Design the sequence.
């Protein structure tokens, strides 16, 4: 206990009387908040100063494969990809529970900027959700959008490809609460990246011919790494 009180004293939150035995007295609530606020602001200023001195490689996000752990982070990365799109944002939704406002709004913004937004979804509800946010999106309902490679505790949630240069397949699993999903993803970038090239080749064949057998091949290739995260 004394160690804890001594740490509070070093932070200026407790006064100590040098007597025997020692006596401790907490400072006022207002003063304590002032001390904590000053410490917090000092920490932010120091972090800002350090981070301002860091340099970022211009090519860092242009190639390679990146793991994304957390459903919110997956949605944020999809939004970033949609914002950076120049020609097309193609979406294949396997689990319609991944279609929410955080997913639909970036597609709407892409449409507003004249980007083509074709999407394939497994249900009319998912189609309606996307079209409500992005009325000009080209959304089709197809039974083959569901994941035929669903095994174990994780399965394909959605796959997004952008401008034939980036691909983001996300895997989902049941969360701790009923109806809640937990998600992870990988993002591959670069027109010569093997995952990008292979995914576009297989999805291109599927979109041209509309045959389920192409989806059966495409999913294990694109989602194998996601299911291991």
Sequence:
């Amino acid at each position: 206990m004394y160690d804890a009180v001594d740490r509070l004293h070093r932070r200026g939150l407790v006064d100590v009387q040098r007597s025997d035995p020692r006596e401790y007295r907490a400072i006022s609530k207002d003063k304590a908040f002032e001390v904590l606020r000053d410490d917090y602001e000092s920490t932010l200023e120091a972090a800002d100063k350090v981070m301002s001195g860091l340099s970022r490689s211009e090519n860092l996000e242009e190639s390679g494969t990146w793991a994304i752990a957390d459903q919110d982070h997956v949605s944020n990365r999809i939004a970033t990809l949609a914002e950076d799109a120049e020609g097309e944002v193609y979406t294949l939704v396997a689990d319609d529970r991944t279609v929410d406002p955080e997913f639909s709004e970036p597609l709407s913004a892409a449409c507003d900027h004249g980007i083509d937004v074709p999407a394939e979804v497994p249900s009319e509800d998912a189609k309606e959700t996307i079209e409500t946010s992005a009325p000009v999106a080209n959304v089709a309902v197809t039974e083959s959008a569901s994941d035929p490679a669903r095994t174990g505790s994780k399965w394909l949630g959605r796959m997004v490809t952008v401008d034939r240069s980036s691909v983001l397949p996300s895997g989902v699993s049941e969360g701790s609460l009923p109806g809640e999903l937990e998600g992870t993803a990988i993002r591959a970038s670069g027109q010569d990246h093997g995952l990008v090239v292979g995914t576009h080749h297989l999805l291109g064949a599927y979109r041209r011919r509309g045959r389920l057998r192409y989806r059966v091949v495409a999913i294990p290739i694109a989602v194998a790494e996601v299911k291991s995260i």
In short: The chain has two domains: 2-52, 64-228.
